[in-house]
Design a protein that fits this description.
This protein has about 425 residues and is α/β, with parallel strands linked by helices. It has two domains: about 250 residues, Metallo-beta-lactamase, Chain A, CATH 3.60.15.10; about 160 residues, Metallo-hydrolase/oxidoreductase (Rossmann fold). It contains 15 helices and 18 strands. The strands form three sheets. The protein has a seven-stranded parallel β-sheet, with helices on both faces. A hairpin with a 4-residue loop joins strand 8 and strand 9. Helix 4 packs antiparallel against helix 9 and helix 7 runs parallel beside helix 8.
Length: about 425
């Protein structure tokens, strides 16, 4: 039997949600796809009061990949900027070559984390690393093609590798449908993973490394019309939306619907304001949607394109406003308001697309305690950033892989069994 030249090693993510890291060895070439933080382990050892001592301790606890994983690596490819995929870039060896989805968004991340007083200071890379943006749908020097995928973080890519004796496609995290209107969707996604393989039917995938986050989980598919209905029914309330800053699609959807109700929209988070400001520069459709929104001057100090408003203006006529905050900073944002001036029972809508285990956010019981204290009524409305199990057949029928390797899932055996029934 001839020994295969392409050797795939799932370093992290085989039977867990998050923390993906894949090493591909092919003759004298070594490629790494993602190198995320394993938050499932992180939360067992650390809290806000117990911080990691540094990179060596995180390696010993197997929260991030060991040094050996990156030995002789030609390039490290990052699918998107969720920390369970991006990881801690200071973990990478000196002079590493890192391929990322967007230099614009990456520069924001560097600014956000480089002066952090917590373990997040390890997110930015060392000065000696080489950072470059992947080229869309073009084979690079390593025979890797970046293919856009729809996910709750924008932009996101899957990676197609043409190896010496095997073609490998790593999906990263993805969903099949966009949740914004048609024009925005077309602008944000020139193509998608399904469309790409439908248009390139001659492509033959030997191994599909595919995420399966929603397998075995009780997740009810929620369509964008459900979000629209929730917003419409709460038209007479002061509404607060908690979102992940990277989820531009969901943010645009919420803003478009709020504008139909003539709500004054306020961004009450500096990172969220900066992220939207950055996307305006490259998405003309987003610029039109984000026109006439405000930023809360009490929370946003950096220069952005939006007009400012203060907390007193909102408190004077609260039901005219809808406030959008970072899900990580929601408690800090709500504590700015005078409890006596906010209508009792005002809705706080938690639009958390990703499960909490992917990125450590906060303990939900503490969040609910604060919401109860201030008299807010919480609602959870989740449009998953991942495809649903009933869509698995469509993916397999379109991509037609010879074999699969499930990743980013707790139920790989279920995916293997379904795959065997489909092919």
């Amino acid at each position: 039997m001839v020994k295969a030249m392409v050797n795939i090693k799932i370093v992290q993510g085989r039977r867990e949600i998050g923390g993906n890291c894949i090493r591909i060895e092919d003759k004298d070439k070594v490629l790494i796809f993602d190198q995320g933080i394993r938050f499932s382990i992180f939360r067992r050892y650390f809290t806000r009061n117990i911080e990691p001592l540094g990179i060596p301790e995180l390696r010993k606890l197997q929260i991030i990949p060991s040094e050996e994983v990156f030995e002789n690596a030609d390039s490290i490819y990052i699918t998107h900027f969720h920390l369970d995929h991006l990881g801690l870039l200071q973990n990478l060896p000196v002079k590493s070559k890192i391929k990322i989805p967007s230099m614009r968004i990456f520069n924001l991340f560097e600014r956000w984390y480089q002066f952090s007083s917590s373990w997040l200071k390890y997110v930015p890379p060392r000065y000696s690393t080489q950072i470059s943006e992947v080229e869309l749908m073009k084979s690079d020097e390593n025979n890797v093609v970046a293919i856009p995928v729809k996910h709750s973080a924008y932009p996101s890519y899957g990676y197609l590798y043409f190896g010496s004796d095997e073609t490998v496609f790593y999906t990263g995290d993805f969903r099949l449908t966009s949740i914004v209107n048609e024009n925005s969707g077309l602008e944000m996604y020139e193509t998608s993973v399904i469309e790409y393989f439908e248009d390139n039917r001659d492509l033959k995938i030997d191994t599909l490394i595919i995420e399966g986050t929603n397998f075995g989980r009780i997740i009810t598919p929620i369509e964008k019309n459900t979000i629209k209905s929730i917003i419409e029914r709460m038209a007479d309330e002061m509404m607060i939306f908690a979102v992940h800053p990277l989820e531009i699609e969901l943010i645009l959807l919420v803003i478009m619907e709020l504008k139909k109700l003539d709500k004054k929209i306020v961004i009450a988070c500096e990172r969220l304001a900066e992220f939207l400001d950055e996307n305006i520069k490259q998405l003309s459709e987003a610029k039109a949607i984000l026109d006439d929104i405000f930023v809360l001057i009490d929370t946003v100090t950096k220069g952005v394109i939006f007009n400012s408003i203060d907390i007193l203006s909102i408190e004077s006529e609260p039901t005219k406003y809808a406030v959008i905050v970072n899900v990580r900073r929601i408690i800090d944002s709500l504590r700015l308001f005078d409890i006596e001036k906010i209508p009792l029972g005002s809705p706080v809508i938690l639009l958390t697309s990703e499960p909490f285990e992917e990125e450590e956010v906060h303990r939900e019981e503490i969040l609910l305690r604060w919401l109860n204290y201030y008299g807010f009524q919480p609602y959870r409305a989740r449009i998953s950033g991942h495809y649903y199990p009933f869509e698995f057949k469509t993916i397999i029928k379109t991509l037609k892989p010879k074999k699969i390797i499930p990743i980013h899932t707790r139920r790989p055996e279920l995916m293997y069994e379904l795959f065997s029934r489909i092919i």
